[in-house]
Every structure is written in structure tokens, then in C-alpha cells.
Amino acid sequence: MRLSVGCAMWTHRAWQGRLLAHPLAPQDRLRHYASWCDAVEGNTTFYATPTRETVASWAAQTDPGFRFVLKLPKVVTHERRLTDTDEPLRAFLDAIEPLGPRTHALWIQLPGSFSPADVPTLSRFLGHLPRSHRYAVEVRHPAFFTDARAIRLLEQALGGADAEWVPFDTTAFFATPPTSDAERDAWTKKPRVPLRSVALTDRPIVRYLGRDDTDRTVEGWQRWVDVTVDWLREGRSPTVFVHTPDNTDAPVLARRFHDEVRARVPGLDALPEPIPVGPLTLF
Fold first, then answer.
1. Which of 112, 17, 102 is nearest to 60 (CA)?
2. 195-230 pLDDT, tens per residue?
3. What is the C-alpha separation between 233 and 271, in angstroms, rounded?
4. Torsion angles phi and psi, residue 279, rounded to 5
5. 200 Cβ contact partners less than 8 Å away, ≥ 6 residues apart
6. Is CATH 3.30.420.40 what the domain over 4-264 is classified as, yes or no?
7. Which residues contact 25 (CB under 8 A, 6 or more apart)?
8. Domain parsing of the chain, residue ranges
């Protein structure tokens, strides 16, 4: 029984000197983040495939149980739309090999224009992927959340590959108008889709976007505390990523979410103790 929590990144200017020691060499930043959270979204891999040497440094900074959910490159998902992708996909899979078991899932985030008519393409793509990895798919076309036939088609395609459906819950964020610059920026960029909280596999993945106000973020995730508790009692092993528009307190919030779930599931292991920001003193 395990719940992993994390953020959208492992380094952020707002964390420097407050949550993470500063300055930190690049080869130490992930190690310090991994003392706060035991999972991270691999958003950077969407924009460019890293070198094996870079990925090897990620592995060196984390325990084998740390969870990376790595986004497939945009050339695969958005530019080629899952067609004629052998070469970039092979390069990506080779690059991430040093992570070994830390690669919890490969995340296939599809553009909003990827519609129910494209599900056969997704099914073929999933069918040709190596079984050495697990896969998680995020869709944004409205029909996948409102049309029963579209939902059924997608679930069948995912089920055939034992792939998970990743919900990005923005309902709490869009409940009321934005009140900060970061919220106003996110208001124009984040997807507005209905809530989905159905797990297809034993390793569900959730992305949750709160607000810059901590109380409203915590209020909005209460439904996910309930769902996560149920998943754990069913024997599932979920991963929950906590976002806010500015992400200033994201590691603290991720740990708070874990604490709230653990208070109701006492058998859940605690997260590690964060590495101190400054040197320890006797006084």
C-alpha cells in the first residue's frame, strides 16, 4: 500500500533558500526535492529528449522507489499525433533507460484537438509500445468527458494496453474568478474539463490544480482525499500531483495532502524528512 505525491517540477525559484537549500548545484537539486516528495512530473521531456547522461544523474539523485511520470515528447504526441513515431520514440526510450524502475509511467498527454475519432490511432499506438513500461494517457477533448460512447471507446482502448487515464482536475481552480497574476495567467492556459475520478488500473495518477490561496486549495482537494483513501483500501497505489498557479508552496501542499490521507489510513508509510535548508546548529 503506497501513496506517492509530487509536483510539476523539482526546481523552482520560489523554493530556493526556503524549502530547498540555495545555492545548489544542478546535480543536487533533484536529491533535495526528493526529500520532500517521492514523485515528480517529467514535463521537461515534452519539449526535448534529455541525454542519457542527464537521465543517469536523475537516477543517481533518487532512490529506486522514487516515481517519475515522464511526458512523451511533443513530436510524438502533438506534431506527429502518434503516427510515424518510431524514430523519436526509440530515442526517447533509450534516453530514459538509466532510470530503471523509477520510471513509474510514461505519460501520453494529447492535444485538445485529439477527438474520439482519433481513438483508433491511439489504440494502434498503445498496441505497439513495449510492455517494459506502463502508460498513462491524458485527454482534453470535451467529448471524452460528456459523451458516453466516447468515454467507452477510450476506456476500451486504454484497457487493452493496461494504461491509465490521467485526470487533470481544474474544477476548484475555475470555480471562482482569478485573484492574482499567476491565477490570471493560468486562467487562459489550463484546460476546463469536468471532474473524472475513475481508476482503470492499480496505479492511478491524478493531477490537481488548486489556487494560490492555501485554504481554497485544501478545500478543493477533499474529494481527492476521499477517493485516494478508497483506492488505497482497494489495494491500489496512487500518485497525486499537486499544482497551484504559482507553485510557491507546492511541495508543502503535496506533503499536507499525504498527511491528510495518512491520518485516515494509518498503515501508510510516512514521507521522508526534508533535507534541512541551512546547516544544523547546536543552539
1. 102
2. 999 999 999 999 999 999 999 999 999 999 999 999
3. 19
4. -65, 145
5. 155, 158, 159, 163, 164, 165
6. no
7. none
8. 4-264
